[in-house]
């Protein structure tokens, strides 16, 4: 199999010490493949899942011409410019109970919204536009045109037309559309499994008492949120101390259970870290410095799962074949590894910039990158050319009605509070320099993404 370094080396101008975010994206596009296994799920369980096959409409929606208003159905051919119309009401059509009688010239049928249009009638006058006069109604001149307030059969979807395409994620609207086709079940791709853990001796699990030099683990919680919103099965493997045996065990357990493994911390050049060396020892991993901020150091690779390391006695490990590891058709024998930098905002930014699009592609989604909004920066932003910067921003509508974005304060890569106040990331591209107040910038808005 082609090694990670070989795949990376095929990128133009590859330099592991100076990767651009475009190169990382291109690398991941080459590396990852969608899952193939399918399952059929009930509609309620389909939200957020990815369609395994195109859905062709088995029926027309709506199935018949019907009224868009409560009112009176009549033949629009009787309308004359400048003239009122007097019609005799000869029956009633209810939603679910069609009028089957015949309608002569000068007659109309009382009709409710959704009721089938009676034969030969093509126009509906809303009841508030009419005056009743015994058995008759009056319609004032020039209120309507022929065909008004009639919904045509198949105007939403024609029988045999493509309704949804393979690779689309099932949104609330798509679930509704599937239900409107009478489909109680749908074929989706299997859910992706993603295992994650935090590394570092200074990382406290919740519930542990504070101690000097230690910080509570936040990365596992932001990752939990990001993965859950993405709709994958998120497998939390806790905090793993910087100990080779514990790290080995964690990587083995993660790779055995999951399609992808995400770690945070220990990928920079720090001396005390065994995370890097364990990744190198167990897997096929590239360590990069990316020209971006935050999120500079990152490891990407594969960890084999065809051998699982089981604890033998207290500290020794032995390789043994296991039947409990998953067989994934993405990478049959290994899990994809994302070694994210430890700083809490760097975790979120590298996830949004690289991990999320890669996981979406693995999930089988055809749409893997979120659309960027263009907004005017309300202030000057300092930016170095030669790296992609992701600044936490708050987008809103300015006094002139145009979209405007401002930075939410301290942009340190450990500062989560400015991330909380943001509703998007201002994406400042690699080549660009300082942003002047009033300049237009790209924003990846969180709503709909995280
Ligand atoms: N000489 C250099 N030093 C550093 C570089 C560099 O290029 N040369 N890069 C800096 C950047 S940028 C980052 S980001 C960090 C990434 O380093 P690591 O991935 O090795 O992360 P750690 O050192 O383990 O942790 C960094 C920072 O984040 C805190 N952290 C870690 N895990 C968690 C967690 N689960 N929850 C909350 N906070 C966490 C940790 O305490 C550290 O403060 O390296 C720079 N240094
Ligand atoms: O990856 Mo680091 O973000 O910039 O501190």
Automatic annotation (TrEMBL):
It catalyses: adenylyl-molybdopterin + molybdate = Mo-molybdopterin + AMP + H(+). Its cofactor is Mg(2+). Keywords: Magnesium, Metal-binding, Molybdenum, Molybdenum cofactor biosynthesis, Transferase. SUPFAM superfamilies: MoeA C-terminal domain-like, MoeA N-terminal region -like, Molybdenum cofactor biosynthesis proteins. Transmembrane segments: none annotated. SMART domains: MoCF_biosynth. It is an enzyme of class 2 (transferase). It comes from the Bacteria. One of its GO terms (biological process) is Mo-molybdopterin cofactor biosynthetic process. Residues 195-361 form the MoaB/Mog domain. GO terms for molecular function: metal ion binding; molybdopterin molybdotransferase activity. Pfam families: MoCF_biosynth, MoeA_C, MoeA_N. Pathway: Cofactor biosynthesis; molybdopterin biosynthesis. GO terms for cellular component: cytosol. Its EC number is 2.10.1.1. Catalyzes the insertion of molybdate into adenylated molybdopterin with the concomitant release of AMP. Belongs to the MoeA family. PANTHER family: GEPHYRIN (PTHR10192:SF5), MOLYBDOPTERIN BIOSYNTHESIS PROTEIN (PTHR10192). This is Molybdopterin molybdenumtransferase.
